[in-house]
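Lab notebook, page 48
Experiment: co-folding of the full assembly
Goal: obtain a model of how the components sit together before planning crosslinking
Operator: M.T.
Materials (sequences as entered):
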Amino acid sequence: MTKLALLSIALATVILPLVAATDSNPWRGVKKALVWVLAFNLFFVFFLRVVVPRLG
Amino acid sequence: MLRLTLLTLSRYRWSALAAAVCALLVGFSVAQVRPERWVAWAEIYVHEPAAIHRLANPFTTAPRDGEGMKELEAWLTSRERLVAMVKDTALVDRWGPGRPRPLQLVAALRERVRGEVPEVDVLDALVELVEHRLDVTVERQRVTINVEWSDPAVAQALLDSQVKALLRERETREVRALEDAAAALDEQVSGVQAEMVNRINEIDGRVLRARAEGRRPAVDAEREQLLRDQERLGQLLVRADEKHISADVLKRSNTLRFVVVRPALRPLQPDGAGKNVRALVVVLSALAAALTTAFGLALVSGTLFSRATTQRVLQLEVLGALPGQSVVEQPRVRWWVWLLALGFAALSGLAAGMSRGNLVQALAPTLAAVGLWQLWTRPLKWPLLGLMLLAVTIDDPTDRPYVGLWHSPTWALGKFFYTNVAWFTGFELSIMGLAALMFLRRVVTSGLSGLAVDPTGASSPRLLRRLLLLSGATVLWLVVLGVARGGVFREALWQFRSLLMMPLVAMLALHAFEFPRDFKPLAVVLGIGTVVKALLGTWFIYGVAYPMGEIPPHTTGHNDTMIFVMATVLAFTRVWEKPSWRSVGIALFLVAFAAMGMRLNDRRIAYVDIAIALGFFFLISPMNRVKRVAIRLGVAMLPVLLLYVAVGWNSHSGVFKPVAKVRSIIAPTEDSEEESSNVERDIENYNITKSWERNMFFGQGFGHAFTEFTPSNDFAQSRFGHIGHNSVLWLLWIGGIVGYTGVMLYLAVVVFLIGRTFQKATAWNERVALAMALSVILTHLMQAFGDMGMLSIQFVFFVSTATAVAGRLAVRHKIMAISPTEPMTQPILYSVTEQPRTITQQLQVFINGKD
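Observation: model returned without errors.
Model output:
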């Protein structure tokens, strides 16, 4: 479980832009991709600091 | 055309003659002045007389053939040995008078100005020189020692010192160690014996006193201690005897262990070809210099055009050429061009004089000039493809290919391209050279679009180029930050080099390639790499390792996983996108080699990479009849699959081997090799994450080592904390979340462009190229997470090509242009040929079975 949690940052780099690519407006899509990846990376810090230690 | 070319060249005959004379003069003068090089070599066969060991001491393990050979090589080239060589041969005294006259004069002059050089400095300089001139090669049980020197007697003396040291090696090292151990045991024996004598004397005294007093002596405790001492003494005597015997056997079998195949003889002839051949080479070099000068002057003056250049500039087909004196008036050539031509001729002469009859070395300046001209006039994609071909075929010596048991024929090339040549590796220097070429060509040909040899127009969306620059800039910032915080630049260099190369090669690839046109040559490069690596691995296993009695854990290096994975993905995606017999044939060919390569290389992560890459491809590919059937089949087979996995989970039968492989990845059995490897990785991940917690936002910067909070057996493997097996966590620790995002953000845009272009591209080769690009990114991230995937130049080439595919095809399909298309609310699954559908709609179609 911990490994999967750590892997999530690598998978997010692929999954989030792929989902954003389906937006009808390309520029809105690319903005979404960048913002989602940035937000996920920030969330990852919190996740690693708070959640992962509790997973053991 | 040839006649016209010859006519044009004849205008520069006097210049050519001047160049030839200059090259001849310089060449012959240098050949006369240059001191000769004498090469002395010896060969020693190392064999363990196992029978003698077993007969003499059957209680200890006899050493095996080939054991400790690598240590032998390291010892022969160690500083300790180099210093001994210099001292054995009194090189400090002999070196000065043997040097060439001009160098002696320079040394004398320097001594006058700066004073006498201290002997320690001379010794250091000589040790360094000997290190360069000494070559020790160990191949299986054969040790070859080469020494080159300008004096044959010194060359022989240096070699003799090494051979004698090797013959004494066992006596001086192993025997001494055994004798020391035996002496220590002997001392213990003496100590115990002395204790026992004292104890016996004491018991005797007590018994006598007790008898005199008429009572029973109380010596039971002493007797028991005496018995224990006796037992201990026996053990010590056995151990000491074993050590004595072993030392004796080693000493006596020393002559049997080393068989001198070729002794240290004095070389009779200097190295290189004879005098006549040398003269001929100088003449040939002068002729080549003359011809190159004439060509160069004709090209620079603009009187010589190739058919291709003419067609490109005029944008017209060349039907023929008119010979004649006055086709073009001979223009004046500037003075500095003449000077350059003369310099080139002198350089050719210098190379010929220095070459000692080696034609390739003598022609090096001419070949370099022709190579540079070719690079300048040909599209960038060819040298880039050449580098990629090298990256997928040659071995990386730093990756410990073939477990160090064998050097493949690509070893020498690998050493040049993968290890430091001048601060940087051969690959890095080539990349920097190509980047400089691209920049220069852009500057020179700007405004002259007809002269452009690379694809013109926008190569990629501007955002992607900016994010690539951001990636490079972030790496540089992290270098500055790390070094400013006390990091070691030398370590930082190994850490950041691949990450810095990534944006550079991506820019080059974006500039050089055009898709789908260049997809085919890239696929051919991948195919060649797969075949070469699989064949090398197969030969190593069956031709080298098994005959030696070795069962190696892997064949080629870690990073070759990417080659096999990509070849497999290419095979499947091509058949999927263009179902034809030709595609099936290509797929069978590729998969056969890739499967063999993966099986022998035995990297579990390869199977995970393939599964994830094909899974993502399946997910984003449009719904069609085959996909629908595949999904239905998958759902129908799910219970059978689950049953198969459940039954085979604890089975060792060959039928359940795939289940065993899956288990070794996700839940390895206790005490297995996989479990131990996983535990080590978990410890390392823990250490990196704990180190990262010190500065989670901005990181440490390059040049630092993570802290070993929990002791790990793999700490040495990670260069004592400077490199992490998990490159993702490692980069997070180095750059913090800010640095990590800066370095990796371009990948998000690359994936975005792939996802978007995939919806528009209809040509099968474009779709396969996009699927491959996505697979490269996924595999790169998986390898980065699993096994140092960010530190390999192979990944740099793969990811850069994926970036080029995404960027180029996005521009081709005007992906970033806003078009009034139907809004797509949640279509991860969609169709190119049919109307886009939402997942809900697709599921309805799937459940109802109707289109």
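Interpretation: Chain A is about 90% helix and 0% strand.
Next step: discuss with group before ordering constructs.
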